[in-house]
From TrEMBL:
TM helices/strands, residue ranges: 163-181, 188-206, 212-233
Protein name as it appears in the record: DZANK-type domain-containing protein
Keyword line: Coiled coil, Membrane, Transmembrane, Transmembrane helix
Domain DZANK-type: 253-296
Originating organism: Palaeococcus pacificus DY20341
Positions in coiled-coil regions: 68-147
Length: 298
């Protein structure tokens, strides 16, 4: 049965609107099973006391780091001054030009350096101790988080299976019903229904593959889609008959694509025969044309 263009357009719109509504309905089905929340599993495995202790140690570590940098700068300045006064005092001793002021400056610089060194060593030891405690605590929390993450992934996999089963309970009966209708009536309306249900089933399959495999699923889908596209292009546009007719319309040799003139009988590039005699009118017509351009007979 032939259908008008407007009927085909309306049938396509019918399929499109049904798909949009159904996809939205499938998305709503994801809220029926309880979706796992990672924070629930995190609180189960990681006690709040550990997190509070982690926060406290992190703050303490930052404060010690600031203090550590200050003490290191003070030690560097005190050391530079001490080295300078020590060398100055040594040179004065060797030349017997030591004064009481020079000696006091040297002893004061030495005392300040030793004090800065003690303060820096104390802050450094405390800072390293806090860093070690924080490192051990972070490792402990990471191990507990990995346990929580494993249980969460298992629960989420069960959740995805439940959602998939719910969606299949909607899609498969729709596909079966449309298939039975098409088998019985075989009109444009039944064809629209089976197109809708087939596309919906394909959407569900792609969604399931993507949610479970993601990059691998996308790669497989892209590979299949590319292969189908290449097959379609080769079948529709690269068939020898189509290539030959396209080259003839462009005044080229149908075999090698070399430019030719209308009165050429043989291709000057590959030597293939370009024209044959029409059995009806006797005119020389291009090979591979279905109808003679002079008499219109096949």
């Amino acid at each position: 049965m032939e259908y008008s263009r407007i009927e085909k357009i309306l049938a396509s719109a019918f399929v499109l609107f049904l798909l949009l509504a159904s996809i939205n309905f499938l998305d709503e089905l994801e809220d029926i099973p309880k979706r796992p929340d990672f924070h629930d599993y995190e609180s189960k495995y990681v006690p709040s006391e550990l997190l509070e202790n982690q926060s406290r140690l992190s703050l303490l570590s930052r404060n010690f780091r600031i203090r550590y940098d200050e003490m290191r700068d003070n030690l560097t300045k005190a050391q530079e001054l001490y080295v300078f006064k020590r060398e100055e005092y040594r040179v004065a001793l060797e030349s017997n030009n030591v004064t009481e002021d020079l000696k006091n400056e040297y002893l004061s610089a030495k005392k300040d350096y030793e004090k800065a060194l003690l303060e820096f060593s104390a802050v450094e030891a405390a800072y390293k101790e806090v860093e070690n405690q924080l490192y051990e605590l972070n490792n402990q929390i990471q191990e507990l988080n990995e346990m929580a993450w494993r249980e969460y992934r298992n629960a989420y996999s069960v959740y995805r299976i439940k959602v998939l089963l719910l969606k299949l309970l909607f899609v498969l009966p729709a596909f079966l019903a449309s298939f039975l209708l098409y088998k019985r009536y075989k009109n444009i309306y039944a064809a629209s229904l089976i197109a809708y249900s087939s596309l919906l089933l394909a959407y569900l399959a792609v969604e399931a593959v993507w949610s479970s495999l993601q990059v691998i699923g996308l790669s497989l889908f892209g590979a299949v889609a590319t292969a189908l596209a290449l097959y379609y292009i080769r079948r529709e546009y690269l068939k020898p008959e189509r290539v030959h007719k396209r080259r003839i319309a462009q005044n080229k040799c149908y075999n090698c694509g070399f430019p030719i003139k209308d009165d050429y009988i043989i291709c000057p590039n590959c030597g293939i025969k370009l024209k044959e005699k029409c059995e009806n009118c006797g005119a020389m017509k291009p090979i591979h044309l279905d109808f003679c351009p002079y008499c219109g007979e096949q």
